[in-house]
Design brief:
Helix content: under 10%
Number of strands: 11
Shape: globular
Radius of gyration: 16 Å
Structural class: mainly beta
CATH superfamily of the domain at 38-64 and 82-177: Oxidoreductase, molybdopterin-binding domain
Distance between the termini: 34 Å
């Protein structure tokens, strides 16, 4: 993980303010997750569906990603280190059908968010359970969250427990409620009326 040599200003998208904190933002209550019963399901446009336990995930190759995070509410936090399983490493366990073009991440509490499959193939996209050397707090998505650093952070679903491959796109929770379908912070794609 090479350090980013750009200045903080160069790393901060338009309309964002830097913070040293990691604000906790979510709608509704924090879901209660029983780790003994936690499962991660992969289904949809795949040859064979897959169900993983927490122990299964812990046996997969671990990676660390150093990245900046950008929230649609106008804050950015630089130099975060997440640890978990790279999405591309997890995909080696699954035969995705050629017609799969999109993914819907599902999470405890009924949350979900959609992304193009191509966006998940970046080298820094992962399923994380650690942040800056410590387990994620429940408020930040423990036992696992996705980390998709190049998009606004609502696309990095907290409490993730399933990955659905889809041939056609459909909106997730925030996208159904006025957020942009893609969410590029460098283009300030915050809300659906901005595209």
């Amino acid at each position: 993980m090479a350090a980013d040599e750009r200045t903080p200003a160069e790393r901060t998208p338009p309309g964002q303010i830097l913070t040293r904190d990691w604000p906790v933002l979510h709608y509704g209550n924090v879901p209660k997750v029983n780790i003994a019963n936690w499962r991660f399901q992969i289904y949809g446009v795949v040859a064979d569906e897959l169900m993983l336990t927490r122990e299964d995930f812990m046996k997969l190759p671990r990676s660390k990603v150093r990245c900046d995070i950008h929230c649609v509410t106008h804050w950015s936090r630089l130099d975060n280190e997440f640890e978990g399983v790279l999405l591309k490493d997890l995909l080696q366990l699954v035969k995705v059908k050629p017609e799969a073009r999109y993914v819907m991440f599902h999470a405890a509490g009924g949350w979900n968010t959609n992304l193009p499959l191509a966006d998940l193939m970046h080298d820094d996209v992962l399923f994380a359970w650690r942040w800056n050397g410590q387990d994620l707090s429940v408020e930040h998505g423990w036992p696992m969250r996705t980390v998709v650093p190049h998009l606004y952070f609502w696309k990095s679903a907290k409490w993730v427990n399933a990955m659905e491959f889809m041939a056609e796109d459909r909106p997730g929770f925030w996208e159904q409620n006025g957020y942009h379908p893609y969410g590029d912070p460098w283009r300030e794609q915050r809300f659906s009326d901005e595209w």
